[in-house]
Amino acid sequence: MKFFVVLALLLAFARNGESQVPAKTISTRSSSGEFLAYPQPIVPSRFVRSKTNSISLDPALLVIACERVRQTIYSELGITGEARGLVYLHPRQAHFPNEPPAINVQPGPLGWAYQVEIPDTTDEATFVRAITHVVLWEIANRNAGSRSAEIPLWFADGLAENLLHLTTLELSLSSGRRESGMNISRVFFDARRQNPLAQAEIVLRANKPLTFDQLSWQDPRQWTMRDAEVFHSSAQLFVSRLLHFQDGPACFRAMLAELPEKYNWQFAFLNGFQSHFHRALDVEKWWALQLVQFAGHDLTEAWTLDQSRERLDEAIRTTVEIRSDQNALPRRAEIPLQTILREWDAQQQPPALERKLQELTILRLSAAPAILPILDGYRDVIATYLQKQNFSRSLFTFKKPSGPILNKLTMESIAKLDALDKKRESLGPVETASASKWAVETR
Predict the structure, then answer these.
(1) Beta bridge partners of 321
(2) What pTM does this model have?
(3) Do residues 106 and 113 touch, judged by C-beta distance below 8 A?
């Protein structure tokens, strides 16, 4: 696992979200004024730093590197205008090996503010991914209200991977040395960047690329090193192909503008790219064609019955976090569709069920023929429930609904799901286990 953006409430903000810093601490500000870097910790980490691609924690070099990432993103996406949020860079000792940067996003009286804690073992690629995520956040949140935008991981990481392989991006990130009283640092610039997709092609020819659904619901905490490589390569190709549309940059800008208004980023994505896609299924079909042309992989190739059964088992269950009491650590549990219908309220049900319906629709592209009648049965039950259950009356009443919707339609739908579960179980146990998980985490 190379990088995972940790969005947590870590620090209290003051003065537009700036963390409490000792009065004598002097920050270094970038030329655009968007980035402020603070001095590195006096005591270095006990963990080993890479000698070839670790970044310098010198504040002057950090803000220069951030500015170059920012300028390249603006150029790629056609972004204009000045930043309305401030990014505070705080180098610190790493708590564990390969610790990723932690990003905290908070609204302040003068705009959104972003705290980035940079462990002293951070490498070049991890740093660029973190700053790319922050820059996209700042762009999306320029017109946000009290809710921050959700930046899809594939977008931030895919764009960052593209930047890392562009000849136009030169990063002075390596640890420098002092000569004649001046800091000297090397610039990473090699022939690999002449073809931005060269490394992605190697990875995706040797490994099966991720589907759009798999790109959408990744959990980096479960990644192996190979999983990370496949994700980053798949995301880079996906973003690159979208940027190849004549209006690709404009579509991404439209998507970023809508992200703060949407609780599900997929709606913002489809609205932004409405000139090309109307449904998530259209995206999946287009993406499958791109992969056939690029790496010779056909995502529509049918799976075996065992593979199809395993993925169906995952698609009809939802991963949730459960706490035994308010102060207890959360634990993960998988719940069936019946629990959503029986126990969730009218505001929680629609987005969860729509997501499940989408997963099943995409799953149908590659499922074995023998399992299609059962798969279609689940789809029909969910679609009928969403269509006939009167959510609009519950969602727009002045009094928010409390408790589940236990009416005749709910009971009939649960009975149909129980019957489908029995048919699915009659197919026998799954003999092989896949390394990938499609479970969607619901918070």
Answers:
(1) 332
(2) 0.65
(3) yes
Mean pLDDT of 223-232: 91
Q: What is the mean pLDDT of the chain?
A: 79
Residue 386, CA distances (Å) to 93, 148, 273 in order: 50, 28, 25
HSE-up of 150 (CA within 13 Å, CB side)? 12
Closest CA to 287 of 302, 299, 271: 299
Q: Whose structure tokens read 């590195």?
A: 40
The CB-side HSE value for 190 (13 A sphere, CA atoms) comes to: 7
Place of tokens 């690709």: 248
- Residue 174 scores a pLDDT above 90: no
Distance (Å, whole) CA 102 – CA 129: 12
For residue 333, which phi and psi values (nearest 5 degrees)? -145, 150
Helix, strand, or coil here: 331? strand
Band (pLDDT 50/70/90 cuts) for residue 373 is: very high
Q: Report CA torsion sign: 335, 338, 340, 342.
A: negative
Q: Where are the beta strands (DSSP E) in 263-405?
A: 317-322, 331-336
Q: Both tokens of residue 273?
A: 């790219």
In which band, very low, low, confident or very high, does the pLDDT at 194 lie, cut at 50, 70 and 90? low
pLDDT digits (tens, 9 = 90+) for 27-54: 899 999 999 999 877 677 676 666 556 7
Whether the pLDDT of residue 440 is over 80: the answer is no
Question: For strand 28-29 and strand 35-37, is the pairing parallel, antiparallel, or unpaired?
Answer: antiparallel
Strand partners, 7: 103
CA distance 321 to 323: 7
DSSP string computed for 128-187: HHHHHHHHHHHHHGGG--SS-----HHHHHHHHHHHHT-TT--B--B--EEETTEEE---
